[in-house]
């Protein structure tokens, strides 16, 4: 028979192993996100520390400056991600311990701990090098919650007043340190309180008094932190950020909270899916949560109103720093504790709805599904797009004309040039080269890799810039958006040419029958193709219906000659949205002259109806061919 301590170590190892298995690519792959480039290249700059101090995060700035000053190459950022990963493992151990102390079964506590540590926010902490201190701030605030409750119990006993006072002060100090690292993560304090007070089947004794005691300690700690923050920012040259101030419109802020961060938290891991899926996930989670919590309220009549009152305050308290500030930016990195508290309430409700025997099956199954979704979100919303973007720019710098330039002109990409299928905030799927502070840092960091010197000077322009420069040896141009679009074209292009599953072919040989002009467009046949005569800025025509495979994606190849630079747009319909809409369309920029465009369409709910807008201009387009092939959607 294994001892209790041995079983605990085995479970801790299993939880850490699962988290490592799902996030190992953050350590092995060479990539970075926008702030990573800037802070790595400017690690020794005092302004970086001053910026963090002006944001109320002095310890974050000190840790960042110290660690990043040890790094030199982009590949070194994996060590920061490794530190963050160890912190997540530590936090998962603290979560598991808290669940066991609160009376949860091992399989239940382990499953929920894994899910919490793989939520989009914690996945981001593991993947974004500059966020490495955040999870340690969460751990400190979590421990502060435990110390706070212990001090209450010892004060109540009456014979351990000194130890209780020390624990209370320790709780406040840890909470203040957590706030100085990253304010949005400090409500981890309330996550422990929720786990400890709302035990399975029954609430903790003295529920209301314990909650009020914790609220007083939390309030005093926040006030002490705010006084320290105001007292320490004045010596620094960087002015306090607007988001560091307090909001004066609470009604609008609460409306924003419900519409944005709270809905993000309810969507759990459905962050890169279609909006319809995200909406149904939110509705399902909300119904299960409210149903289970209603059963708990019904069964615990003696503590009914304290439970309702405390739980209604816990949700906003878990996001208090962002609710109180002027900032209205619901990025996932600010939602770590809010998301974890939603997960806690969800699984507490599931325990109320189902019997313990069924729970042993349900919890691990949900954990397995969510783990796979977390891996997919991080891999295809973060690691792969950022790694490929870095490789594309690295390859461009190795072109002959970029060996010894006196000047580099860098044209930034647009956020729509992302290599990821979906984008969320400035985190998942955002191209780093679309951010204005990245190009100079990125180019010079890459220069370190093979010439041990910097590329200077570098001029940066936004994606709309049509800078025309006569070819000169001393000037080199990197158009990041164009490079990303070309790369995106190669993916469906390669899939198209290896497929023999032809579903539709329109050209001179097969004819152009089935094409139907719908708006501001006339057709005129010529031997070289079909002339599309546009007499407005919104011309479009419908493609014929065709037999499409439901189990495969489709790649559309369009060969068209345009009179000017413009944007081609392909619309498609689905069972859930049977009409043409901007949300169900794909755009491609085309230039004056001949263009061959490849567009991949998803198989999910596709109905076979397609509409093509050749461009937003007046003039004559020459359509050479349209061909559609089925490809594997794996």
Radius of gyration: 28 Å
> Level of helix content?
40-55%
Oligomer: single chain
What is the number of E strands?
Answer: 14
Structural class of the helices, strands and pairings? alpha+beta
| Mean pLDDT over all positions | 85
N-to-C CA distance: 45 Å
Main sheet properties:
6 strands, antiparallel
Unreliable stretches covering 5 or more consecutive residues: none
What best-fitting shape do the alpha-carbon axes yield?
A: globular
How many H/I helical runs? 21
Question: What share of residues are in beta strands?
Answer: 15-25%
Walk me through this protein's architecture.
Helices cover 52% and strands 15% of the residues. The chain is built from 21 helices and 14 strands. Strands 4, 6, 7, 9, 12 and 14 form a 6-stranded antiparallel beta sheet that branches. Helix 6 runs antiparallel to helix 7.
Spell out the blueprint of helices and strands.
Elements: H1 4-23, H2 25-28, H3 34-41, H4 46-54, H5 58-68, H6 77-101, H7 106-116, H8 120-127, H9 134-157, H10 161-181, H11 188-197, H12 207-232, H13 250-259, H14 261-266, H15 275-299, H16 304-317, H17 320-324, H18 336-353, H19 356-397, E1 407-411, H20 439-450, E2 458-461, E3 475-479, H21 480-497, E4 501-506, E5 516-519, E6 521-526, E7 529-534, E8 540-542, E9 552-562, E10 566-574, E11 585-590, E12 593-601, E13 606-613, E14 619-632
Parallel strand pairs: 1-2, 1-3
Antiparallel strand pairs: 4-14, 5-8, 6-7, 7-14, 8-13, 9-12, 9-14, 10-11, 10-13
